[in-house]
C-alpha cells in the first residue's frame, strides 16, 4: 500500500545548503515568507556560521530545489530558524521530511529540545509542527509585522 501523497513525489534528496542555492531560494523568498523574508546577506551570514547553524535543502532527482530548512543549536537547545517548501511541491510530505531532518541534526549535536516561533496566523506551519510532535509553549505578543501578529512558541523534547 502507498502512503498518502507519496506517489506524486519521489523521495527528495537532502544536502547542506550552499551559497549557489541562494539565487533559486531568493527568487521565492518573498512569496514564501512575506515580511519575514531574508536577504542574501542574511543567508550568507547564516551559512558562514557552521559551528552553530545547520542549513539544508531538499531537491528532486534532477537537482531541482524544492525546499529548505535551518537550525541553530546552542548547548542543549536547538531552534528551528526556517522551514520552507516551494509552493508547487507542497502537501507531499516534504515539510515533514525537513522538520525531521532538523530534529535529527539537533539530536546529533547534543540538544535535548528544539524550539521554534511561528506566526499565529500560519496555520499550515502550526499544523505541520503539531503533527511532528511540537507542543505549544507560549506566545510572544506582537512579534511579527511591527506588533500586529503574535508568535506562538513551540517545543519538541528530544
Ligand atoms: C508550512 C510548509 C513548510 C509545509 O510544507 P509542506 O511540504 O506542504 O508540508 P507537508 O506536506 O509535509 O505537510 C505535513 C502536514 O502539515 C499539515 N499541513 C501542511 N500544509 C497545510 C495546510 N496548507 N493546511 C493545513 N495543514 C497543513 C498537515 O497536517 C500535513 O499533513 P497531511 O498532508 O497528511 O494532511 C509550507 O506550507 C511552506 O513552505 N509555507 C511557507 C513558509 C512557511 O510558512 N514556513 C514555516 C514558518 S518558518
UniProtKB/TrEMBL annotation:
Signal peptide: none annotated. GO terms for cellular component: ribosome. GO terms for molecular function: protein-N-terminal-alanine acetyltransferase activity. SUPFAM superfamilies: Acyl-CoA N-acyltransferases (Nat). Keywords: Acyltransferase, Ribonucleoprotein, Ribosomal protein, Transferase. PANTHER family: AMINOALKYLPHOSPHONATE N-ACETYLTRANSFERASE-RELATED-RELATED. This is Ribosomal protein S18-alanine N-acetyltransferase. It comes from Jatrophihabitans lederbergiae.
